[in-house]
TrEMBL record:
Catalytic center residues: 152 (proton acceptor)
Gene Ontology molecular function: histone deacetylase activity, NAD-dependent; metal ion binding; NAD+ binding
Signal peptide: none
Binding site for Zn(2+): 160, 163, 201, 206
Residues of the Deacetylase sirtuin-type domain: 30-283
Name this polypeptide is given: Sirtuin 5
Gene Ontology cellular component terms for the protein in this record: nucleus
UniProt KW keywords: Metal-binding, NAD, Transferase, Zinc
Domain of life: Eukaryota
InterPro entries: DHS-like_NAD/FAD-binding_dom, NAD-dep_sirtuin_deacylases, Sirtuin, Sirtuin_cat_small_dom_sf, Ssirtuin_cat_dom
């Protein structure tokens, strides 16, 4: 039963919930499907280890450009790879400077806040909530979630292409040459910043060129992060998937979680998540 469906910037937010029940000998797991919030709330109240998978549909509700479905920045399709970085590092850094500056003006929405509040509340009860996200904007951290796995990296981290050091930077701009650059309009000319004026490594006098510490098209995901994701999905007894209409690198996780889907709520996650994750009447104050 579809409760409600709406789109945000062409992306449909959905909440799908999978319950992992313990196996018993001679009996296979039985999945009982329902879209009633009350039934989900009963299941949620008993869960000890909750995994929440999030994608760009969650960010879109904070007004974040998702660059999905053929999105463009200026006249360029917003898909970056290492080849483009080597050919035009100035353009790549203009694009990511623009994205960083946009995010510094954005705030977590009601869904981010509901997830963070749920994590803190359940932690006090000896229960666990883990957020697994393909978003790179750190809005989960802004909402004060602490147990977050970022499978695509972060806009606010850099990695050195010489020494490999990964560093956190929320500076605005990240380097002086990028100030006022990165405008997204199609008629904007490239700034053509010389490489030695772009972000450089400050670790131990390295001075090597930096790149955003995010996963680009054609790159493999971090094996350590993927191992931790597998561990969380294996341990959890309840999995919530806040998903957009199209998924990329979370597709494996989604295929696992959606294979046994007990509850499926359509609608903006800022509407569906807060009542779903609110304090249950059986929880201690």
């Amino acid at each position: 039963m579809v409760v409600r469906q709406c789109t945000s910037r062409g992306i449909t937010s959905q909440l799908c919930v999978r319950l992992k029940e313990p196996r018993t000998q001679g009996r296979q797991d039985m999945a009982r499907h329902s879209s009633e919030l009350a039934e989900f709330r009963d299941v949620f109240s008993k869960a000890k280890h909750v995994a929440i998978l999030t994608g760009s549909g969650l960010s879109a509700e904070s007004g974040v450009p998702t660059f999905r479905e053929g999105g463009f920045w200026r006249k360029w399709q917003a898909q970056v790879n290492t080849s483009l970085l080597s050919q035009n590092p100035s353009r790549v850094w203009e694009f990511y400077h623009y994205r960083r500056e946009v995010m510094l003006r954005k705030s977590p929405n009601l869904a981010h806040l509901a997830i963070a509040e749920c994590e803190a509340r359940l932690q006090r009860q000896g229960r666990r909530v883990t957020v697994i996200t393909q978003n790179i904007n750190e809005l989960h951290y802004c909402a004060r979630s602490t147990n977050v796995l970022e499978i695509h990296g972060s806009l606010f981290k850099t990695s050195c292409m010489s020494c490999g050091n990964v560093a956190v930077s929320h500076k605005s701009p990240i380097c002086a040459a990028l100030e006022g650059k990165g405008a997204p309009e199609p008629n904007t000319s490239d700034a053509q910043i010389t490489p030695h004026h772009l972000p450089m490594c400050e670790q131990g006098g390295c001075s090597g060129p930096l790149r955003p510490d995010v996963v680009w098209f054609g790159e493999t995901l971090d094996s350590d992060i993927l191992t931790r994701v597998e561990e969380e999905l294996d341990r959890c007894d309840l999995c919530l998937v806040v998903k957009e209409f199209v998924s990329v690198c979370l597709s494996v996780c989604l295929s696992v979680c959606l294979s046994v889907c007990l509850f499926h709520f359509h609608g903006p996650c800022g509407t569906t998540l807060p009542p779903a994750l609110a304090r249950h009447e059986t929880e201690a104050n």
